[in-house]
Design a protein that fits this description.
By secondary structure, the protein is of the alpha/beta class. It contains 2 helices and 7 strands. Helices cover 20% and strands 42% of the residues. α2 links the parallel β5 and β6.
Length: 90
């Protein structure tokens, strides 16, 4: 059964008491697509990113069987960026 995923593909920065990341791949559509790729083929992703989005991240998703033809890259724009900070009582 095929699956169509429409949503956000983004960069995340996450800080916890145990460490910090900066500009890692994120977005709900990213993780839905990757998780679904283990159970459904094909998974077709539709989203928009900026020209700063990494080709290595696109390649990784393709290796997991996610069809990225629906990913629009706006070369002169920046990708959506989310950051969050978690405290000791997460």
């Amino acid at each position: 059964m095929s699956l169509l995923v429409v949503g956000s593909v983004a960069f995340d920065a996450i800080e916890t008491p145990f460490g910090k990341t900066d500009k890692i791949i994120g977005g709900a559509a990213t993780y839905i697509s990757l998780a679904s790729s283990y159970f459904s083929k094909p998974v077709n992703l539709v989203s928009v990113v900026g020209g700063d989005f990494l080709k290595t991240d696109i390649n990784m998703m393709e290796r997991h069987g996610v069809n990225m033809e629906g990913l629009q890259i706006k070369e002169n724009e920046k990708s959506f960026f989310w950051s969050g900070k978690y405290h000791d009582d997460m």
